[in-house]
Amino acid sequence: MLEIKNISTRLGDFHLKNISLKVEKGDYLTLLGLSGAGKTVLLEILAGLITPDEGTIFLDGENISGMSIQKRPLGLVYQDMALFPHMKVHKNIAFGLHGKGLSGSQIRNRVTQLAEQARVTHLLDRHPGTLSGGEAQRVALARTLASEPSVLLLDEPLASLDVTLRHELRDLLKEINQSGKTIIHVTHDYMEAATLSKTIAVIENGTLLQWGKPEEVFRNPVSEFVARFSGIKNIFQCRFNPDEQQNGLFRGKTPHGLLMKVIEPPAQNITHLMIPGEDIIVSEQKLETSATNQYQGFIKEIITLNHGVELIISTGENFSVIVSKKSVHSLDLSRGKKVWISFKASAVRQM
Amino acid sequence: MLKDWRTKLTLIFFSGLIILFIVAPLLGLLLRTSPSEYIQTLQDSEVSQSIRLTLFSSMGATLIFGILAIPLAWLLARKHFPMKGLVNGLIDLPVVIPHSAAGIALLGVISRGTWIGQAGEQVGISFVGGTAGIVVAMAFVSLPFAINAARDGFAAVPEKLEKAALNLGASPVRVFFTISLPLAKRSVLSGLVMMWARGLSEFGAVIIIAYHPMVTPILIWERFASFGLSYARPVAAVFILVCLAVFVLMRVLSQKNYHVRN
Fold it and tell me: Domain B55-210 belongs to what topology?
């Protein structure tokens, strides 16, 4: 188990603040955050490339904070791969195998084995400069795995790849993790984090905002930042009067004066409310339903997505609503058209 | 369009003028020397011995001092330390001071009265008036070329590659020899070639420390001073051709040794 305790460091204007995390053996942790959030800095601290001002790192109970880079059993794969340009692929992979008391044939066998695992056998005699982004990424992975690190640290490994290659590499990473390797993966891509992780840690401005299982983090985001990261766009700050309750519903007002009814008692007088775009119904007329939140507005924008269509509907506040392409057609939805939106008080979540 | 042509012509004219300024005197010297003079000069044992001495002394200076200076070049490229700017400035000092002054300064360190001079004498090395002194004088004035080129070469190696190698478990020494040095090889080699070439042409510092044995620049000067231009010219012409040949050969070899940088 890797345990990070109260890591803080200052690098120019940037400040990584008091990061504590536990990564179980075999875990797949993604560090999710925007660029400049401090994810890569944390990764480099773990690898020993940056010495933090404060804090300790334990690996299986041993304090490795003062351990030199070359002795730390944490293998880092850089975002730009950092393959050695003057060495052929097989030499790159074999680099970490030298100085371990292995014979020449043992090194060759291990390289062959790693190349098969990373599916780069056909590239062994090439120079890194001739590889595509996906190929180079696989070679970098094989090279790091060769040194048999306890934890694999990946800095945006999928960032430079196109969609097909991304899928392939994602499968390879899953495979490596399933073979028992602990992985810490830095990304700014929510989908990447959602599909790969067993645990997600969200970082913003050098602060760890939230960490836990992906479904917990995305279901109960602790801040607007995390919620927006998870793709929820309908987030409204509401002012509640705790005494004001009608028919078991609490009523709050958005800054633009929109009245919203919620079932759960608001935790604070000013609370952030979230409504997933999929839970909002669009209709031409006001509906007689159990949805207690109903507003009339007009369609401000229509955005075609991979699956469905996103409508931005202005009711005083802007709502993002996801509907099917069929609905756009059957309701004859177009920009500027007046529509009604409705959602249940129980669909409204609080942060 | 016309303006464009005028600019081009002006550029070509001035560039040509500068190239002519460099090439014309050398070419004049080479062409004014007759084939028989070349043959005579090549057969002159004093000249051939002197050229050999010059080539090998400069080679020795480069191999000993240039290679010893490579770690310093790496340090200057990679590490931050107090007064690094001053150290960088000190390295260029031999280039900016008059070389005869450099010779006088060196003499104060390696003459027979100093402990270095005495230590040398005890193991049979005589600096003043000896090949060892020529090597030291050549090294002193030409070291900046090797250090500066190697430093720039090391600085151009992405630090990330060195860190990646460390992360793969390599010791700092192994990282230096397998990553930093091979990737900076081109600059390091070209710096060494430049150092060697600069050493060959050294006159001022060498003449103060060792008039004899006579390196070729001193031999040229001696023939000019004692016998006149017509006696000095053929030696100068032969020396220029030898230097050019070796210089071009070294350049080609140092480029060939290098592949795929990316």
Answer: MetI-like fold (1.10.3720)
